[in-house]
Amino acid sequence: MRKQLIPALAALMLLAACAAPKAVPSDTPAPAPTLSPAETPEAEPSAALWPPGTGTETQTVLSAPIEWVEESEMTGGELMPAYIDEGGELLGPAGFDVDGENVYILNTADNSAYVYADGELERQISLDVTGLYAIRMAAEDGDVYIFGVEQDTRMPAFAAVYADGTAESLPFMERLSSEAVASMTAEDGKLRVEVGGRSWSFDLADPEARARSSTKHTLADGTTWSSRITGSGTAASDSMALDVTLPGGRELSIPFKPSSPGFWLGGLRLLRCGGGEYDVYVVEIAQNENYIAYTAEYILRVDEQGTPLGVYAGEEADQFYSARSDGGALYTMGVDGTSVTVKRAPDVYTTAWADYVSPLADITLLEE
Predict the structure, then answer these.
(1) How far, CA to CA in Å, does 81 sit from each of 69, 107, 108, 115, 334?
(2) In 258-345, which ranges are E strands?
(3) What's the pLDDT tens digit per position in 239-260?
């Protein structure tokens, strides 16, 4: 459970493009915590390999220590620095990506990308060569792509640091109508950017080519999705739906309810799918009797009718909103006071929906 913390706010910012970043309860109480089946024609599931394995355990693929320092005392080295600046902003591990056997960690304290292989630091890439302070990062085939602000003007911009060490600016910012970049991924030579409620796709081989944009978000296999509120509430809701279009063109709508009465759905995000099953990142919101908002997040696996097949809740430090999929496997990053970790989520979720207990259950809810 998170109370007004940076990870929770970042999660809700990311989900702003998907539907609902704030808890604004209505006068209608949330219904019972069941996912209502929808009538869906029988059809072939998507062709992706599913699940990517049979493992039921979470695997830690990286655990790197953090060194808390003063801004003026950073000297570099194998430990990843972190500090809090004069304005109270936390600078340190801020994002990650998985590129084959390598794990990339974006560190905003020293404006670097740390590259790990088999859990060991392989190299550190200074992002200062781009002239930007990095905010978002994606990696593919050894190349690193960043969104950030120019160090001299603080204007938003994109840039790349290639595997051979060269760097160049990318002309993507001029195509966007907003600088609120929520996330970005690099896949199959495309940079996909979520911003201003839309998903943009840029051709990395031809940066000047016309960009594509859509209100739907796209997975690596071509599946597109969007979420919408279906119940009461305007920013958060007691029910939502995930609208999915599979690569073959078949469309379906998957319904969702909160895990317990009195909770609200703050957003949905499709992470991966295949074989008629869907892993969905879910944010729930509850407000206590003192009007303090809390959030909880989990990954729910459902079938095409919305029937829960299992849930993965991870640990408190895990940040599901930044989850990445690589080769069908799902990875999450977590940051605590001593280290940054990257974990591979289980292929099979062993916690049944009926057995899931939300950390929000510990608070005394505000009575409507």
Answers:
(1) 6, 8, 9, 15, 16
(2) 264-274, 277-287, 293-303, 308-312, 318-326, 329-335, 339-344
(3) 999 999 999 999 999 999 999 9
